[in-house]
C-alpha cells in the first residue's frame, strides 16, 4: 500500500466515529471554537468527545467586537438542560448519563479561548502550561490535572479486554490504549465514574439503567466523599495510586476534602430513554433533558459536562476486572465466532469500544447571585434558544432554531429570565438556509407575541398582553426591546433604501448591517433580564427573523397560572369596569 493510501485509510478510520451525545441547552461545543467549518477542526481541543465532527455549536461570539457577554444563570433558577443521544438507552444498551459542572474554584484557568481571527488555529490546539498567557487558547481543566494523570500509574485492576495498552499512566485506558490526550482531561477519569482520585468536577445528576446502583453513586461522589492522591512534599505528583504504596514509597497521600454539597440526583434512564440510531426526541416528544436548579455557587466562569456511557450485557461490565484481560477476554477484538454453524460469523465489535463513553461540554457561563429584590422562594425559569443556522440537514443533528423550553408553565409571581446567544462563526449558509446577516454564518433571534401558536404574524404591540407590569400596564419599552433588540434603529435604512444600496440584490439587502428589520445591527447575545409574570393566560410567541413558514419554525408557548390579572382584560379595563359597576350600583340604590 502506498503511503498516501495508508494515510487515506488512517483518516477514514479516524473519521469512523458515530454520532453520539450533543448538548443543545446550554450549547455544547463538541470541541469547536470559532473556526467556521462544517466539521470541527480539532477533536481533542478540550476533551475527548468521541462524537461526530459535524456536531457542536460555533463559539458564542459576535464578529468585529472585542467582547461578547456570556450566558449566565441566577442561583436557584431552573435551567432545562437538553441533549440528544444516539442509542436505545435502557432498551438495547445499558446506559449511564453523568451531568457535572466545574468553575474557576476547582479549574482556575477555565476559559473558551478567543482565537483572534477565523483562521487562527492556535485556539484549537491542545493547550500546554505555556499557553496560559495566550488568550487564544481554551482551557477547561488545569495543566496540573493532566500532569498528575500522566504521572500516576493507571489502575491495574481494570478490565482492558484484549487491547494492547501502550503505557502505564492513567492516560492509557481500554478505550484509549494509545494514550491520546485531549485538552487537559484525564482519560481514566473520563472513562470511569465515580472516579477514585480527585477531580475538578462537581456532580449534578446521574441517569442509569440500574437504579440499584444509585446509593453507590451518591456515596462515592466527590460531592460527599474525599479523594486522595500521591504527591511529594513539594506537591509534585508521584506514580503511586494507592495510599499504602504511596506511604511505603515515601509519598504523601494528599486527601482532597469533599465539595460538601448535596449528593447528585440519581434517576432511572427511562426518564430520558431514547431509541436506536436516532438523535432526536425521547418519550414525550421532547429532547432528553434535566431541570437543573442552578447551585448556590456564585462564579464567573463555569462549564457543564455530560457523559454518556453505554455497555453491553455480554459480560458483567461492572464486575469484570483485570483477571479477564488478554487471552481471557470474554470477547475478542473484531471476532469471527463459531455458533455451531457450518461457518463462523464476523462480529463488528471493537473491544476498546464495547463499553464506551461519549461526552459533550458547554461554552463557559456564569452563575450570578439573585438580585436582592428577588426573594429566595420566588422561582426563576430560564428561557433560552437552541439550534444553529442552517437547514435541517446542515444543523446536525437536525436541531434548527427553537426556544427552549418551547413550552413553559409558571405561576403568577414567578420570574422568567429570557436570554439567548448565538454565533457569527457558523459555516456560511446562503439566504435560503438562514435569514439575515450581518454575515452568512450569523445567528440572531428576537421575541414577538402572536395570537396563537399556529399564527405566523406578530400581534400589534398595542394588543400585547403578556409580560405586563405589576400595575397591569403593557411595558411598551420591553416589547420594543424584545423585537428589535438593542439595535440603534436611528442608523437603520428602510427596505427601499437597502435595495437601492445593494443594487436590488434582495439577499444582499437582507444581510446588510443597516437592515434592522432582519436584526443585523446588533450582536449575538441578548439578555432581557428577569421578567415577573403577573398576567394569567396562554401566550404564544415567535422570532420574526427565523420563523419561515413551511421551512423553519421558531415558536414557543408560555402559560401563566394564578396571575394577578387575566390576560383577556387590561388592568385599566378592569378598573373601568369596576368604576362602571359601582356607578350602576349607586344609581340603582338611588
Ligand atoms: C461506564 O460503565 C462502566 C461499566 O460498564 C463503568 O466501569 C464506568 O465507570 C462507567 N463510566 C462512566 C464515565 O460512567
Ligand atoms: C444492578 O446493580 C446491582 C447493585 O450494584 C448489581 O448487584 C446488579 O448486578 C446490577 N444489575 C445489572 C443488570 O447490571
Ligand atoms: C493537596 O491537595 C490540595 C487540594 O485538595 C491542594 O490544595 C494542596 O496543594 C495539595 N498538597 C500538596 C502537598 O500537593
Ligand atoms: C422541567 O420542568 C418543567 C416544569 O417547570 C416540566 O414541564 C418539564 O417537563 C421538566 N423537564 C424535564 C426534562 O424534566
Ligand atoms: C425561507 O426559507 C426558504 C428555504 O429555506 C428560502 O428559500 C426563503 O428565502 C426563506 N424566506 C424568506 C422570506 O426569506
Ligand atoms: C420596561 O422594560 C424595560 C426594558 O426591559 C425595562 O428597562 C423597564 O424597567 C421596564 N419598566 C418597568 C416599569 O418595569
Ligand atoms: C426610505 O428612506 C429614504 C431615505 O432615508 C426616504 O427618502 C424614503 O422616504 C423612505 N421610504 C419610505 C417608504 O419610508
Ligand atoms: C420555503 O422554501 C421553499 C423551497 O425552498 C420556497 O419555495 C418558499 O418560498 C419558502 N417559504 C418562504 C416563506 O420563504
TrEMBL record:
Residues 1-19 form the signal peptide. Residues 33-48 have a biased composition (Basic and acidic residues). Residues 28-49 are annotated as: Disordered. The keyword Signal applies. Keywords: Signal. This is DD3-3. It comes from Acrasis kona. The lineage of its organism: Eukaryota, Discoba, Heterolobosea, Tetramitia, Eutetramitia.
